[in-house]
Amino acid sequence: MQTREAFGVLFLILQGMTGARASQPCIPKFFGKNAMVCVCNATYCDTLDPVSLPDVGNYLTYTTSLAGQRLERSEGKISPKRGVLSGLSYTYNPDVQYQRIKGFGGANTDAAAVNIMKLSSAAQNHLLRSYFSEEGIEYNLLRWPIACSDFSMRPYSYDDRCRDDFELKCFSLAPEDTKLRIPLLYRFMAASKRPLSLIASPWTSPGWLRVSNKVQGKSWLKGKPGDRYFDTWARYLIRFLDEYSKYNITFWAISSQNEPFTPTFMPIKDFPSNYFSPQTQRDFFIKDLGPALAASFHRNVHLITLDDTRVLLPTWANVVIGNHSAAKFVSGIGIHWYVDPVVPPGPTLEAIHRLYPNVFMLYTESCNGFLPWDVKVDLGNWKRGVAYSRNILTNLNHFVSGWIDWNLALDMEGGPNWVENFVDSPIIVNHLKDEFYKQPMFYHLGHFSKFIPEGSVRVALSSNCFISCQLKSAAFLRPDGVAVVVLSNDWSLDVTISILDNRVGYIEDRVPAYSIQTYLWRWHP
Which terminus of the chain, N or C, has less C-beta within 10 A? Predict the structure, then answer.
């Protein structure tokens, strides 16, 4: 048994003897050099204490590192004067404010629900609490596929029993909703102290609405916006909201289509997707979905356009939101990370913010292992965690309001997925051993989701680094007045830093090699 694992077991025994309730350390499992996960099962899982800020004049640091730290908490003192340490200097300025933060989360796909439910009840509870409770990373956003996605066990819609059912008489939720995902959602809500905001997205429509006459595969809707096919599709989406409201479930937002453009270039034959051009989506909003949503009991549900890669910006937004008639129905833009390296954030995200400052931008899907040549599940891969945090930092610094991961939990192959489009996930379930593995991606996400709650505001963080900084950074002011700074170090050396907050003084610290750190402090009692 390795040293850290032995310590974790000893900690559990001592806790049981004393009845103490405190954070529990990671029990590590290695899948190669530096490839480490934290193992959870029915009897044990690493946890965090609820965030409790020290007195004014002190700060908290949470550290996750390649060396093995996982959201480890420490405290330090803020000095009224700068010390002798040299290095990167930051100035935290809460008077300069940018976008408001909506939050962070993942997707409750059919695959995620199936994997969670394959665990024992006790192990399930540990997994749910890891994501949603104060002893976990406190997700507040949850993406929700409307009927099947590729991460389902089968292709289906909510109206497959009848043909040409324009009155939607045969519409009904699937067993995947009523027996899996909805019961799990109630448990997510019970575990969370924060309100959960749900974002719904459809992949495909009933086959009889599509040119292909099949649910599976890539196709167009029949007809054109304003006719009975597009009108029925709009009413189908409203009906979905109606049916969920019968379970006392309301949605914060809905997009009209997951990836309306990108799947046309994917080699996966049966990948379920309705194709939309930006012009078709614009006209669908104007003639069908916008008026239907406004006339329904769900008129306060935000409508999201795009829900696809940012390479399509700003063209897509200019076609849809640049049209006054469509813009009055649209609240936000959904973005996926998959080809972010192709275009920089300036000409896309920055440009959109300048053009449409009142429209929020939200990353609605991201995952590792999606390229055909990738290892699908790469247990313990540190670089995949870094890819998450670097992407989040970059996008938050370019006016994005939140970031949603893809599947909450996948199996050891990266599925199930009925079109074999396997990928990685922050939590991997090994149901044969009744255990699950929390990967570096999980902890990198936690550096944002746990400490930057909804309603926080990104604020200015200037530094003495003007060309190529060793660290990536972002700063926030929480609704409770707490200051937050996230620093990511992907160098092989520790980096000495200072953070000046003119209200309280200097934080002086070292950011370890290959680590991510979140700093928190308050400036009033």
Answer: C
